[in-house]
Amino acid sequence: MLDLFDSPEQNEDNLPLISEAELSDAEVLVELKKIKEELKDKVVVLGHHYQQDDVISFADITGDSLQLAREAAKLKDIPYIIFCGVHFMAETADMLTSSSQKVILPDLRAGCSMADMAKRIDIDRAWKFMTSSTKEKIIPITYINCAATLKAFVGDNEGSICTSSNAEKMIQWALDRGDKLLFFPDQHLGRNTCFKMGIELKDMVVYNPNMLNGGLTAEQIDLAKVILWYGFCSVHQGFTPEQITAIKKKDPAMTVIVHPECNFEVTQAADDNGSTSYIIDKIERAPAGSKFAVGTEINLVNRLAHQFPDKTIVSLSPYQCLCTTMYRVRPRWLLASFRAIKENNPINIINVPEDIARSSLKALDRMLAVK
Length: 371
Ligand code: 13P
Ligand code: SF4
Description:
The protein is an alpha/beta fold. It has 15 helices and 14 strands. It folds into three domains: 25-109 and 325-354, Rossmann fold; 115-233, NadA-like (Rossmann fold); 236-315, 3-Layer(aba) Sandwich (Rossmann fold), CATH 3.40.50. The protein has a five-stranded mixed β-sheet, with helices on both faces. Strands 6-5-7-9-8 form a five-stranded parallel β-sheet, sandwiched between helices. Helix 1 (25-38) packs parallel to helix 14 (331-342), helix 3 (65-74) packs parallel to helix 4 and helix 6 (148-156) crosses helix 15 (354-369).
């Protein structure tokens, strides 16, 4: 198995980790099987679709961001939830579970580069400028890929949260309550969804936090229907319209399906787009012999190719579009998390401060109430 990351200082508590000298990769999997069975009444493992196969094989529940948030909220009697995903997902799970339950992220460095593109201090500055630039009501929606402090911001400002599978519903929810939408951090999900809903590109502006006033005038804010934050997923920027042209030229029977974090030109040129679970569902339901070029993270694409040998499933990109932060969660860190629970000394606990959680929950509850 590809081993990109050696994480000697992997947990912040400096507790002993499981080195390769102690256990080989194969032995880690054997130990994991045993300990998971031993702790089955205490621990539930959640796994996002982008996790590597050896991690997914230990997940009790797999899903996209929305499904995993909903599932976490249902795990009332489980003291430990090990979240195999990235930091913002574990934070969301922590806020949706009780204070007696512990949410554990096997590698604390498993973050999301897109989530890091919107900082609370920049959002506060932008909000001040935007609300003083127009008399119209702006409703803020954050993509769930963000820190809890940003979820708290939308919670406190009549806004809400969306994932890639409910973005259209949540944007409609916002536009039913205000005149304008502020959407962060992913400009592409915002633009792709708003365009699909009939909002023209000329009515959308991009606020770049690295520029004075986002690079916009007060008049541009006042005239816009949608203000998009200058954020993006570097993994999904690896897909291009040229790749679609090339793959269709080689095999016109290929259906191109991409994640809506891809840019506008790519989603427009693709045959279809949707969240990770939407992509899985489409491929599952397709008849044998169907052919798909998929524009999303490589672990998911490879898994689908193995699961459906009667269909042709390839990555849209000739390069490996790997989410390196998702990939930080390795089976040996999962084993370290289990062992620490067994020793009654759990590590890598995600704990969102109470005041931030309270404000964020207002926004999360608004989202979960929308069916
Ligand atoms: P999904 O909600 O579609 O699983 O997406 C999460 C994500 O981070 C995609 O990059
Ligand atoms: Fe973040 Fe992109 Fe990785 Fe998703 S694929 S977790 S948006 S960096």
